């Protein structure tokens, strides 16, 4: 059976699944591995006592980075997740392992395993077979308890080690950076697709439409040519809409206010736009805000039943504030398409809020830092 996750997560499984898994053995090996830093600590102490204290200190100092690296390596026994840590944190963990953690691990193993083992072997060490047999039975019954205790301490020990090596804040920052990289890669791919469609398929459709138009003039009365011409123009229109949805050329060339007005002008619902953004914002900010407005207007047109809507935007205290309000039926939920937009906004340290009581109105508000 392949073990994945952490030792503490394994304990929460069904007892039969847990006891059959490799986690108890991995946890025992993890704790017994404390013999290594223990030997280093004892050796440093003995050298310091037998010779000069300086020698013991030097040995201990040399052992600290190795102990920290060893702690990081053996963490994989009880925690399969990757960990990113700085050298300074490894040094701190190494010093803690040499001074305290190693003997706590061995004491826990000694008391947890030693008690049941002594009881199991009681018929051998006791001449009276009656109490010895009873003790053996009790020892066997205590073995599962010992297994859970060992795994629980190893899991808790792993949590302590991980918290020292990589605090939650650093892991969160790494997740945010990773998500930002994914969004950037996604946006670059969108631009590439838009460029390929604009310079390739669209130009071919334009040429085809022009040739069919000329053929229609040369062959009046040919209904098939006329139908083909109309179909080509329709395909060209749909392709342009698709390109605009993949990536807004207006946004790239003229900025966010012009792109928002372009979206509002193409909406089937009348939209009032009051956007006062005098300067260009960062590309990531403009892209995130644009797609929030685009998705919000799509929801207005398809689901709200609104007769009108308005978009208001300005920069306040180095934050871009956008509000999209409609007079529709309300009852909108984040699951209606705004969850992904909230994720996109969070990548640029912004936040998205939704207010949509039953009966309306619906308000989508976005705040994005743009210093």
Secondary-structure map with pairings?
Elements: H1 7-11, H2 15-20, H3 23-32, H4 35-50, H5 53-74, H6 87-120, H7 122-125, H8 129-165, H9 168-218, H10 223-246, H11 249-254, H12 256-265, E1 271-276, H13 283-304, E2 309-316, E3 319-326, H14 338-347, E4 351-355, E5 362-369
Parallel strand pairs: 1-2
Antiparallel strand pairs: 2-3, 3-5, 4-5
Helix pairs in contact: 3-8, 4-5, 4-6, 5-6, 6-8, 9-10, 12-13, 13-14
Could you walk me through the main structural features you see in this protein, from its secondary elements to its overall organization?
The protein is an alpha+beta fold and 371 residues long. The protein folds into three domains: 7-166, no CATH class; 181-246; 249-369, 2-Layer Sandwich (Heat Shock Protein 90), CATH 3.30.565.10. Helix content is 69%, strand content 9%. It has 14 helices and five strands. It has a five-stranded mixed beta sheet with strand order 1-2-3-5-4, covered by helices on one side. Helix 13 links the parallel strand 1 (271-276) and strand 2 (309-316). The protein is elongated, with a radius of gyration of 34 Å. The chain starts with 6 loop residues before the first helix and ends with a strand. The mean pLDDT is 77.
Strand content: 5-15%
Structural class: alpha+beta
Q: What order do the helices and strands follow?
A: HHHHHHHHHHHHEHEEHEE
Q: How many distinct beta strands? A: 5
Main sheet overview = 5 strands, mixed
For the CA atoms, what is the radius of gyration? 34 Å
